[in-house]
Amino acid sequence: MPFQILPTSLDDVRILERHAFGDQRGFFARLFDREELAALGWTVPVAQVNHSFTARRGSIRGMHYQRSPHADMKLVTCIRGAVLDVALDVRAGSPTLAKWHGEVLSAENRRALLIPEGFAHGFQALTDDVELIYCHSAPYVPASDAAHNVFDPVFGIDWPEPVTDMSDRDRNHAMLANPFEGVAF
Ligand SMILES: Cc1cn([C@H]2C[C@H](O)[C@@H](COP(=O)(O)OP(=O)(O)O[C@H]3O[C@H](C)C(=O)[C@H](O)[C@H]3O)O2)c(=O)[nH]c1=O
């Protein structure tokens, strides 16, 4: 099997641990598999694959998502260094609305996080020189881009490292009024 599928504290957010076909040269591992992902609800072709590099330990990016009708599933894979990867439920009416799950993804543990539509995504670099590969089920549509503040007390995301770097855009996402009703998807 190319992946071991592991549950998380949030239904439909799953960990995919990539099996490494190793030998004396090194290893070969699959990043995406249509049949394996279809069984987990990814039933459309991959629309976009992105690559991000984050130089400094402690940097944070997030919490980003796309609104309907351009909501997307993401498969986030760390191929260099390590991150705390966070999925945050922002779906109106969800029993886990405003709940988040954090998972350490690293080149070493070969874990990826499968993040369904309706979840915001963010991460903190736990090492310098982190590289992530994102597979998306829908293309990037700037007009549908949405985000919440990574420090919003409504969510209480527990970032493990002192924050060293963020984009101005991410620093300036508005804090929410309580109670948070969620977003329609
Ligand atoms: C997502 C995306 C962005 N862009 C452009 C838009 C900006 O001009 C530039 C950087 O985008 P952004 O500042 O949103 O990049 P990050 O802050 O790393 O956000 C990313 O990391 C967080 C944690 C995510 O989950 C999102 O997938 C993604 O938005 O790339 C594109 O051209 N295509 C794309 O698919």
Give the arrangement of secondary structure elements:
Blueprint (H helix, E strand, L loop, with lengths): L2 E5 L6 E5 L2 E3 L2 E3 L5 H5 L9 E7 L5 E7 L7 E7 L1 E8 L10 E7 L4 E5 L3 E7 L4 E7 L8 E3 L20 H4 L14
Antiparallel strand pairs: 1-2, 2-10, 3-4, 5-12, 6-11, 6-13, 7-10, 7-12, 8-9, 8-11
This protein binds dTDP-4-keto-6-deoxyglucose.
The site of dTDP-4-keto-6-deoxyglucose (T46) has 12 residues, from β5, β6 and β11.
CATH homologous superfamily annotation:
Jelly Rolls
**Highest-level CATH class:** Mainly Beta
| Gyration radius over CA | 16 Å
Q: Which ions, cofactors or small ligands are bound in this entry? A: dTDP-4-keto-6-deoxyglucose
Averaged pLDDT = 97
Question: Biggest sheet: strands, sense, closure?
Answer: 6 strands, antiparallel
* Secondary-structure element string: EEEEHEEEEEEEEEH
The fold-level CATH name is Jelly Rolls
Helix content: under 10%
Using the 3D structure, state the CATH architecture.
Answer: Sandwich
Distance between the termini: 32 Å
Number of helices: 2
Report the strand count. Answer: 13
Proportion in β-strands: 35-45%
Strand order of the largest sheet: 1-2-10-7-12-5
Poorly predicted runs: none
